[in-house]
Amino acid sequence: xxxxxxxxxxxxxxxxxxxxxxxxxxxxxxxxxxxxxxxxxxxxxxxxxxxxxxxxxxxxxxxxxxxxxxxxxxxxxxxxxxxxxxxxxxxxxxxxxxxxxxxxxxxxxxxxxxxxxxxxxxxxxxxxxxxxxxxxxxxxxxxxxxxxxxxxxxxxxxxxxxxxxxxxxxxxxxxxxxxxxxxxxxxxxxxxxxxxxxxxxxxxxxxxxxxxxxxxxxxxxxxxxxxxxxxxxxxxxxxxxxxxxxxxxxxxxxxxxxxxxxxxxxxxxxxxxxxxxxxx
Length: 280
What we know:
Blueprint lengths: L2 H12 L6 H15 L6 E3 L7 E3 L1 H13 L2 E6 L3 E6 L14 E2 L5 E2 L4 E2 L4 E2 L4 E2 L4 E2 L4 E2 L4 E2 L4 E2 L4 E2 L4 E2 L12 E2 L4 E2 L4 E2 L4 E2 L4 E2 L4 E2 L5 E3 L4 E3 L8 E2 L3 E9 L3 H5 L3 E10 L2 H5 L3 H5 L1
Parallel strand pairs: 5-8, 6-9, 7-10, 8-11, 9-12, 10-13, 11-14, 12-15, 13-16, 14-17, 15-18, 16-19, 17-20, 18-21, 19-24, 20-25, 22-26
Antiparallel strand pairs: 1-2, 3-4, 22-23, 25-26
Helix pairs in contact: 1-3, 2-3
């Protein structure tokens, strides 16, 4: 099926608010393409803000799968029973996929694409529409939300959340490009873009409403009306603070959390990440 025909069918079925075999059959074909990475929620596009284009038609297809799904019991021999939409069960994977999913409570939902060489430590969760590139590691208690796009050789450390952005359909999901290191207990939300080889220090929170202060280049990066928050390539970001404005804040020495770029990747930074190869 050509992309043009696929988009046309999604637009047609998205406007149908009744369940019928024709819509169900289309949703099955759509989810198969999403599952194997043939289509994805966002793609590189040099002409788009931030260099990425959201495919709103993919998001519509996912929402359509939710809409027509029936609530069913899901039995799990290890964890008990659950109830979810029948259209979006746990992803079916095998040894041929060359993915390491270590035992202990991890769940990958159907419609998430996981490339070969990915390592997932328990417990972790990968939601529908997510895309994870080759040789990436998801450490324990990590979350990759719906439609988030994660590149190759990324390390998502324990307790970190890559937020999902399914609605509104036109909103860019979170993008983490290749070879990014994300420390423990971080949160990346609201369509932020992390450029290649950036390092996000433990405890950093990046959102559309939090500016990033570049102490090296003397710049401030923030989300604008048509521009997402973009962390530059190779930036090393750590948690920091800045003085809060106003008399009350001054009187009480109040400050506001802010992420700061303290340097850009160098040989010392790269040496600290060499162990990552051994873990794969």
